[in-house]
Structures are given as C-alpha cells and as structure tokens.
Design a protein that fits this description.
526 residues; alpha+beta; six-stranded mixed sheet; five-stranded antiparallel sheet; rod-shaped
Length: 526
C-alpha cells in the first residue's frame, strides 16, 4: 500500500490549489490591511492639519496641545501618540505636531505583523510681522463733493484702528508703524518731517518740496540732501481783497495743517489728523506716492532715529524703516484718490528768492515799487510817486525778498495792483512805456511756472510705483469715484489686480477693511 501511494498521482492538483488559495487569501488580506492603513493615515493627516491651523491662530485662547487633542478626539481617534511643539513670541505662534496611531491588522497578523503604525506630521504658523504702512490720502477740492470726505474719514479711522491692533499685546511691543500722507496739489511736510529732512531755506512760511523727475527713479530720499522748497505762492486767488498773508491753499499750507504724520503708533493722534482734514486744492497723486514710498525706505533711518531721540517716535521703531530684504517686515502703501493728476505750479527760478524791487509797510501792509533808474517809488495805496517807500524815512518800510513778497500778494494780482494805469499818471511817454513793460515782466505766466502737467504727473506716478514694486512694497490702490484716467494709473500702481479697489460711496469702508485683513496671514509651512 505504501508503494502504491507513492506511485499514484491522484489529488496532487488539489494540494497545489490549496497552497495557492492560502497565498491568494494572504495577499488579498495584506491589501485590505494596507488600504485600512492608508485610509487611517489620510484621516490622521487631515485631522492634524486642521488641528495645527486652529492651534496656531493668534486669536486662539486655549492651550495649543489641548486644541490639537480636542480635534483628534472629535475625529474619533483613540490610543494615539502625540507630540506638540509650540513656539510663540509676541508677533507669532508656530505649532508643530507629530502623531502616531496603531492600526491592528486583520490578515497580516497571520504572517507575524500584528500592527501597522500610521504617522503624520505638520506645522502651522500665524505671524504678524513688523508692518510699516504709508496711508496716502487725497484731500483735493473734489473730495468735498458727493460726501466723499464724509465717507473717507470713518473708513480711514477704522483702518488705523484695525492696523494698530497688533500693537495691543501683553509685552506692549510696537510692531506696526503707520504714516499718514495727506496730499492735494502738494504735500505739506509739516514741522516734524521738515525738522529731519533738509529743505532749501528761501523762506519758512510753509514746508512743501518740489520734486524733479530724478526723485521718482529712486526709492528713498536722502534726509541730508536739501529738497527744493516750493515758494509760498498763491497762484489761484485773484480777488482784489485777497488775504495778506496768503493762505497757501493751492501751494502749501502753513505749519501742520494737513501735514504728514510719520511713523506713528498713536491711534488718537492719527484719528485726530484724519478728522482735521479739509478738502481743498488740486491733485498731485505722484507727490503723495513719492512721500509714501520715502517713509518706507531704509534711507530714512537717520531721520526716524532722530525723532526717536526727541521722543516724537516710539523707541520700538528705532532703526526703521527696515531693510527691504528683512523677512520679518512687511511694507505697505495704501494709495487713495478720487481724481487724476493735475498741473503743479511754482514760481520761476528767477523769482524764487533774492532782493526784490518791492517794499512793504509792516503797519498797514501797503506795497511800493522801486524804480532805481529814477530813484522813485510808486505807492500802491495812494497811487502816487515818492522818493521814499510807503512807510516813511524811519526804517519802517521793509524791502522784501522775493520769497517774502509772495507771502503777501497772489501772483495773479501783481500786475493789476502794482503796475496798473494810475502809475503812468504824470509821467512822460517814455517813462509811461517803461512802467508798462515793467508790468509785463510780472505778468502771471512770467511769474508762475507749470513745471508738471497732468500727463507728466501720471508718468512720474507710474515710475515711483515701479520702484515700489521692484522693492517688494505692497501697494493697495483705491480709486474712489475717480475718472477713467485716475482709475488707469491707480490700477497700474496696485501690486496686482486684486490689490486695486474701484469703489463707490460708502464702499470705501469695505476696501479699507479688506486691506487691513491682509496684514496677518495664516499659512501651512510644512
């Protein structure tokens, strides 16, 4: 029987089939276990990602590890192993998590593998970097219409409050500096900025700089290199009873009216400036943007540090503006207009400064014109000729420098008031013609220089916006009911189309709110 059993081949295929069947069941079981493992790992990673995002939020009040564990428990995980690493400083929180969960095998245990371990890791970070912001606001005359200024002020105040929230922290570290640059047909530097940026010294009635094209090809303004001071000139007013001194509405306001407020963390002061703004004058968007970028440029560090030393700027801002490659600092310009670039005016260079032929009586403000060829003076108020200026012989009359002269009479009135027809009375014909041609010399367009027209202003604006883009300054632009030409340059200046806000009426508040929300960004870093 033994020999017969060894010789016969009946049933051998059944044995082979059973062996193969066992192997197929084993391989299929391994696949099932691996699928269960991958599903568990995917759920583990997804839960971990959501957990670290919630735990890393700077608004999260709960303990970071507690938040992560709560997410895992809600997702139904049990017997998991968790490692939570939290880094936190005043302006950021980073949460890194590693998690493991054992998956009990159903089939692989038959081959000795009882457990597969699911592993997931991830990190999330919310960081409020140091932020340097220039808020450049249009206060030209058109802002008084259609409630534009009425709508702008609360929107700008809300933006200031929102952007400064990062400064309200347990250690009182001041992370956000904010400069407001109001502009119309010029930008009033004010006494603060004028004390740390050099200006030419023709006069001290007002503090507006006249920019050349070269100023728009660079990002910074060297505080030690004098900027050309604009004449304190009223080129607009042609009223006979124009105020003396001129008010400078269309050239440059006096003192700190609508002046730059630089590198501030003082919410109350910033709100007060916004509330004080009045709509007047023309529009020079390029000048506003020029100052907005300059206050973010590292070249301004000496100016800022000087103000820190005086106690004008918070000491936490020392050595700002930061370098452009500082990864901890975001630089932002928020540029707003309701119009388009208009012509910009100043006096021609020959009348910028130096002794003039005009004298003034400080008692009543009356003016006299000196004719050295006859050694005579024409008195404006009495329409008479005399051998002394109006004001007498007792050094009462003062010879005016041209820079002083424009402080007392609008450019449009010089010829009418000081070279008008009564000045010819009693003169022979040759002298009469001489007086006439002297008046022509002081005709309006011989005094006033339109050194930039609207199209040139657009070109200068595009150039400084290009410079900002090259230096990774984020530019948000708001065209507030602006005409097509203004919309075009504002769209060009925005960092991307998503940074451009064409708004109407009260929608300007939504624009400022949206911009403020982009300051702090939450992101996965692994």
């Amino acid at each position: 029987m033994a020999q017969r059993f060894m010789r016969r081949e009946d049933g051998t295929i059944t044995v082979f089939a059973m062996a193969v069947f066992v192997l197929m069941v084993g391989v299929g079981g391994i696949a099932v276990d691996l699928m269960r493992f991958e599903a568990q790992r995917s759920q583990l990673q997804s839960t971990l990602d959501r957990a670290v995002l919630a735990a890393a939020s700077l608004n999260q009040q709960r303990d970071a590890e507690g938040v992560v564990r709560n997410y895992f428990e809600t997702a139904g995980f049990e017997n998991y192993r968790l490692s939570v690493d939290v880094e936190r400083n005043i302006n950021f929180r980073r949460v890194a998590v590693e998690a493991e969960v054992d998956v009990q095998t159903l089939f692989m245990k038959l081959f000795g593998q009882r457990v597969l371990t699911s592993f997931a890791s991830g990190a999330a970070e919310e960081r409020i970097p140091k932020v340097e912001v220039s808020l450049v606001l249009d206060i030209s005359g058109s802002m008084m219409f259609l409630d534009r200024m009425t709508n702008l002020k609360p929107a700008a105040r809300e933006f200031v409050t929102s952007i400064l929230e990062a400064n309200d922290n347990p250690n009182n570290n001041q992370l956000v500096s904010l400069s407001i640059v109001p502009y119309s047909g010029h930008v009033n530097m004010g006494t603060t900025i004028a004390s740390v940026f050099a200006l030419t010294n023709e006069h001290n009635y007002s503090r507006c700089a006249r920019f050349d094209w070269s100023h728009f090809t660079v990002s910074g303004l060297d505080p030690s290199v004098p900027l050309q001071r604009m004449a304190h000139l009223d080129w607009w007013d042609n009223r006979i009873a124009a105020p003396d001194p001129v008010d400078g509405r269309y050239t440059c306001q006096r003192d700190n009216a609508a002046a730059i407020l630089p590198w501030s963390n003082d919410e109350a002061a910033l709100h007060a400036l916004i509330d004080s703004l009045q709509a007047d004058g023309t529009t020079a968007i390029d000048a506003g943007m020029r100052w907005g970028v300059a206050l973010l440029d590292p070249m301004a560090v000496p100016a800022l540090n000087t103000l820190v030393g005086r106690g004008v700027v918070h000491s936490d801002f020392t050595n700002r503006p930061a370098a452009y490659d500082d990864l901890e600092t975001i630089k932002v310009v928020v540029l707003m207009t309701d119009g388009e670039n208009a012509p910009q005016y100043d006096v021609v260079p020959r009348y910028r400064s130096g002794p003039s032929r005009f004298w003034r009586d400080p008692d009543d403000g009356s003016l006299s014109v000196h004719y050295p060829e006859w050694n005579q003076y024409w008195h404006e108020d009495t329409a008479q000729w005399a051998t002394t200026p109006d004001g007498g012989h007792n050094n009462n009359a003062v010879r005016l420098d041209y820079a002083d002269f424009w402080n007392h009479i609008p450019a449009a009135l010089v010829r009418f008031r000081l070279f008008n027809w009564p000045a010819w009375t009693g003169l022979e014909i040759n002298r009469a013609w001489h007086v006439f041609y002297s008046g022509v010399e002081f005709d309006f367009w011989n005094i006033v220089n339109m050194y930039v027209d609207g199209h040139a202003g657009d070109s200068r604006l595009r150039q400084i916006c290009d410079v900002a883009r090259q230096n990774d300054i984020v530019v948000f632009s708001i065209a507030f009911q602006a005409p097509p030409q203004g919309q075009a340059v504002m769209r060009y200046c925005a960092t991307t189309d998503a940074h451009y806000y064409p708004v109407q009426n009260a929608n300007i508040s939504d624009a400022f709110t949206s911009i403020a929300r982009t300051i702090s960004q939450l992101r996965l870093v692994q």
